[in-house]
Amino acid sequence: TQLLEQSPQFLSIQEGENLTVYCNSSSVFSSLQWYRQEPGEGPVLLVTVVTGGEVKKLKRLTFQFGDARKDSSLHITAAQPGDTGLYLCAGEGRDDKIIFGKGTRLHILP
Amino acid sequence: DTGVSQNPRHKITKRGQNVTFRCDPISEHNRLYWYRQTLGQGPEFLTYFQNEAQLEKSRLLSDRFSAERPKGSFSTLEIQRTEQGDSAMYLCASSLGTNRSPLDFGEGSWLTVV
Questions:
Q1: B56 and A41: CB-CB below 8 Å?
Q2: Cβ contacts of residue A1 below 8 Å, gap of 6+?
Q3: A49 with A32: CB under 8 angstroms?
Q4: What contacts B20, CB < 8 A, 6 or more positions away?
Q5: A80-106: per-residue pLDDT in tens?
Q6: Counting C-beta atoms within 10 Å of the first and last residue's C-beta, which end of chain A has fewer, N or C?
Q7: Is A98 within 8 Å of B103 when comparing Cβ atoms?
Q8: Closest chain B C-alpha to A95 CA, distance in angstroms
Q9: Residue B42: which of A42, A45, A88 has the nearest Cβ?
Q10: How do residues B46-79 score in pLDDT, each as one tens digit?
């Protein structure tokens, strides 16, 4: 069974600080996606990483896929209150099935 | 295209009743997924379809849950004899189905079993 572990589960930090969220597995994924979800809405895609070691940037967000394609990280620089939300990683595994981690709930304090 | 549409958005039902949710995916998407999400948790995989074929159903799902996608377009998720533990948000997502194509989610259907 493929599983994705996200850490931390909760993170509350002050505006302007940097943070990193981790997504780990013992399984290899053909791609890994990061989503952000607001309360009462469905997740919205932020980025997809497909190559081991790949780094993608989206403004203040930096996403990295591990060399072995088993893990990923999301780094946010100078966090802002608008970054508050549930961040989900999702791996595309065998048979193109996409599974999700339990998420990291991020709260940025103004 | 208006994106993935789910109906109803909210459903309150008494324990033991049957409920059905509908999902209309993005028209050119041939893959459709159902997930269940409880408060503060990530989406839990339920089942997925490639066109009308159901590829996999989660082993965690009891026989009370069934999903169909009869013509490869819209899909329904039925829960029979609902239990309080079924209370959750049921999310539908669709994708092109090609390798590494991302999911487009609907806004979800909230189920409360009383």
A1: no
A2: none
A3: yes
A4: B76, B77, B78, B79
A5: 999 999 999 999 987 788 999 999 999
A6: N
A7: yes
A8: 9
A9: A88
A10: 999 999 999 999 987 789 999 999 988 999 999 9
